[in-house]
Write a structure and sequence with these properties.
Order of helices and strands: EEEEHHHEEEHHHEEHEEE
Helix content: 25-40%
Number of strands: 12
Distance between the termini: 23 Å
Largest sheet: 5 strands, antiparallel
Structural class: alpha+beta
Radius of gyration: 22 Å
Number of helices: 7
């Protein structure tokens, strides 16, 4: 039996099928896309904490090897908020902390049903949650998110971040010069930063245009060695042809030796101010 969550006694959230179902007849059932469902699951499992944009992008997309823009993040949060209202939750339970991140509203009640016997701890019990986390490894979070992959895109495994601790840095004593070891360390840090920044900036420049039809423009990330593999990528793109009037630009990353496909659909070209939907599939 998969975990599912009751939110404010009004809506049932089932991560395994990415659905929101009203319990009191007020509202209608909504099927979320996988990134929006994983965003909600992350908010539930970190209830009482503030989650920054970068953490969302790392946990929901980055750990699956998918690089997305901030527009994709904002779009999925918007989709999630609209879906919660449509399902019957009138209150705004996703609170924005300006320049910090998102969190569930303090009055939000979430009850976990299924394999887990305890619901996520509310904010008032934050200190107790810290103690509990020592005994409950992140496998519960991992198991919950893995349920989405049964019929939906490949999930992201959420891992906890270690607490920051104060450290005393010993004062360095220099004899009028800087040692070669320190110079090498500084050079290594600068090189690592440059490669990370350069890779992120030029990631989408590796996509190549391969096909246009039915209002869709399909781009492939990897070099397509054979025509048959190119046809497979085109067939994947045309699965979304019904949405090409809104998101005509389709960027596909398909691996020949791995049964995984990344699909990013945008209303404009990837290097422009656009809105995109990203999805990750396991064949």
């Amino acid at each position: 039996m998969h975990n599912h969550y009751i939110i404010n006694s009004k809506v049932e959230f089932r991560p395994a099928v990415s659905t929101l179902k009203p319990l009191d007849g007020h509202g209608s059932e909504v099927e979320l896309n996988s990134p929006a469902a994983r965003c909600l699951l992350l908010l539930i499992h970190k209830q009482g904490e503030i989650i920054g944009q970068q953490e969302f992008m790392d946990e929901v997309w980055g750990k699956n090897g998918i690089h997305v823009t901030s527009n994709t993040y904002y779009q999925n949060i918007s989709i999630l908020r609209k879906a919660l209202k449509k399902a019957g939750i009138d209150d705004e339970i996703i609170v924005t902390i300006p320049r910090v991140g998102l969190t569930l509203a303090s009055e939000t009640q979430v009850v976990c049903e299924g394999r887990e016997s305890k619901p996520p701890v509310p904010p008032a019990e934050h200190s107790a949650r810290s103690e509990q986390s020592k005994e409950s490894p992140d496998s519960n979070i991992q198991n919950s998110i893995l349920e989405i992959s049964s019929e939906k895109p490949q999930p992201t495994v959420i891992g906890g971040s270690p607490p920051l601790t104060e450290a005393r840095i010993p004062r360095a004593h220099f004899n009028g010069c800087i040692s070669p070891g320190i110079l090498c360390l500084v050079a290594g840090v600068l090189f690592f930063w440059w490669t990370q920044h350069h890779t992120q900036k030029n990631y989408y420049s590796n996509y190549q245009f391969i096909y246009q039809g039915k209002g869709c423009k399909i781009y492939a990330y990897h070099f397509l060695k054979t025509q048959s593999f190119k046809n497979e990528v085109i067939n994947w793109g045309m699965k979304f042809s019904s949405d090409c009037a809104i998101h005509p630009y389709i960027y596909i990353d398909k691996y020949e030796i791995l049964p995984r496909v990344s699909v990013i659909r945008c209303d404009k070209e990837i290097n422009k101010n656009n809105e995109c939907i990203s999805e990750y599939f396991v064949e």
